[in-house]
């Protein structure tokens, strides 16, 4: 499996493409602005079909292009705890960039912690990691020693917990029980900034130690 990423506007949010060249399929994780155009270019580059969009959570900067994937009839996965953000994203306008058009994103597959999603010939474990927002999930792919975590944790930092639905104590518990319980060598792909690893954050993250 090939993992591609791209930092996208308007605030540097990462989108990811998981590509399985043999199956000629790819899965996109998160949909910032311009993610659909980027994803279609990646799919064309590898000769793949986009078979799913997984949203790590419902914050506006991760779902801006979600409606475009829906219009293309691509299945969309998300956690039910963020239903309000998916269905009525304009309610986030008080903490979004003024003037953005935020359209609803219809979720076709509701996922929750403990689910195993089989895509690209691989088993993808879903873990629920609230604290940044109620519906944040991570996607752990054991065969690739990789996890895409949304905004629960970053390299040397953690996701904001001062937005509606955020709670530092809940976030800390999510990190300690759901992120730090992954194998130490697991590469962490966060929603903002560069990649890190479980062991790196366990020993050096100033907010939550392992």
Percent in helix: 10-25%
Low-confidence stretches: none
* Strand composition percent: 25-35%
Please write the string of helix (H) and strand (E) elements. EEEHEHHEHEEEEEEEHEEH
How is the secondary structure organized here?
Elements: E1 2-8, E2 13-20, E3 25-29, H1 35-46, E4 49-54, H2 60-63, H3 66-71, E5 76-79, H4 83-87, E6 109-111, E7 116-119, E8 122-128, E9 137-141, E10 146-150, E11 153-154, E12 157-158, H5 168-179, E13 187-190, E14 196-197, H6 198-204
Give a brief rundown of this model.
The protein is of the alpha/beta class. The chain has six helices and 14 strands.
Describe this structure in words.
The protein has 6 helices and 14 strands. With 210 residues, the chain is α/β, with parallel strands linked by helices. The chain has one domain (2-204): Ribonuclease Z/Hydroxyacylglutathione hydrolase-like (Metallo-beta-lactamase, Chain A, 4-Layer Sandwich). The strands form 3 sheets. The chain has a 6-stranded mixed sheet. The protein has a 6-stranded mixed sheet with strand order 7-8-9-10-13-14. Strands 11-12 form a two-stranded antiparallel ribbon. Strand 5 (76-79), helix 4 and strand 6 form a beta-alpha-beta unit. It is globular.
Which characteristics define this entry?
alpha/beta, six-stranded mixed sheet, 6 helices, 22% helix, 210 residues, globular, single chain
